[in-house]
Amino acid sequence: MVFKAALAAGATVVVAACSSEGSGGSGGSNGQPAADTPPKAKITAEPALDAKDAPVAKPVVVKVTDGKLTEVSLAGDSGKQVKGELAADGLSWTSGEPLGYGKTYTYTAKATGSDNKPVELKGSFTTLKPASQNRATLNPIDDAQVGVAMPISVKFDSPVKDRAAVEKALSVKTDKNVEGAWGWLSDTQVDYRPKEYWPANITVSVEAKLYGVDLGGGVYGKSDVTTKFKVGRNQVVKINTPDHQMHVYRDGAKVASYPCSNGLDSDVERNTPVGTYMIMEKKEHAVFDNARYGYTNVNKKWACRFSNHGEFIHENQDNAAAIGKTNNSHGCVNLLDADAKAYFSSALIGDPVEVTGSKLGKQTQSDVKDWLYDWGTWKTLSAVK
């Protein structure tokens, strides 16, 4: 005959075979166990039986004292077994995969005590059920090769209330020691950037272990996301707008200079904005429209966007007379066709573009503005102090 003791949260279940009493039993003359009677096995579990709102990302652990586990199973609502591993010493079992939200799980655990008698644990618990789930995406994507100014960006489907909880679930690993920090650019976006540009030719691995994380207001992370990408060679574009020249540097050495025409000097709103930007996208053919300045469906080649304010580096052979001599664009950097093609071929998404010399200040309304902040200011954008 076996019996089960009720297991409240954090309590211990003791299950043992009944023993007879009297002179034929194992007790002493006073009816108490003999001093050399082996102790009975005790099985404990976390989450405990009948627990409510159990966490889904924390491993389930079953332990035994004064005995060894012989069998442990944990099944979900559908009967599917949760993966787990029994320790080599037989003293514990640990689940090896996360649990589902709002599910009921049933334990069955068996052990043999030091007294060679079997004990058993049976019962169930339920996991937490979020009010809603928030999905996150990571950029750069797996296997991407990017420039040295490329930030890591985590974007959410809906606003995050507990930003610190998110940051604590994020990790960045690199081949070399790199000082960096997370900064919130909005309530749905947190970016990581290094203090200085990334070292060239390193691999960066990112984990966002958000599943099961309370993001505030009853909202939980929908899933974990990861990425692993490579930083390419160090290439930096430098433009001092009054010079009408665009210089390209590799590893600090100038490798190319191209005559250019930048934003019209006499109209601040048409200036190419100052600040450190980065190449965001590349298009062999691009169509430009700007109703404010009266042009639509203007086709240009070799276009590299470097700001969500609307600036590109692109071919404008139609403006050849001004290139290298006069700034007359609407903010873009105009190059001759051959030069634009040569630069386009060399550029990576994430390459920095450093602009100086104009009167139009930094354009921080973009969601790609990481390098427009000095390092001290950037660190204040973190929710973890």
Automatic annotation (TrEMBL):
Transferase is among the record's keywords: yes
Annotated Gene3D superfamilies: 2.60.40.3710, 2.60.40.3780, L,D-transpeptidase catalytic domain-like
InterPro entries per record: Big_10, LD-transpeptidase, LD_TPept_cat_dom, Transpep_catalytic_dom
Stretches assigned to the L,D-TPase catalytic domain: 235-356
Region feature (Disordered): 20-40
Pathway where this protein functions: Cell wall biogenesis; peptidoglycan biosynthesis
Catalytic machinery residues: 314 (proton donor/acceptor), 332 (nucleophile)
Signal peptide, first to last residue: 1-16
Keyword Repeat among record annotations: no
One of the Pfam families matching this protein, by short name: Big_10
Keyword terms: Acyltransferase, Cell shape, Cell wall biogenesis/degradation, Peptidoglycan synthesis, Signal, Transferase
Positions of transmembrane segments: none
PANTHER family cross-referenced by the UniProt entry: L,D-TRANSPEPTIDASE, L,D-TRANSPEPTIDASE YCIB-RELATED
Name the UniProt record assigns to this protein: Ig-like domain-containing protein
Organism (species): Amycolatopsis samaneae
Lineage of producing organism: Bacteria, Bacillati, Actinomycetota, Actinomycetes, Pseudonocardiales
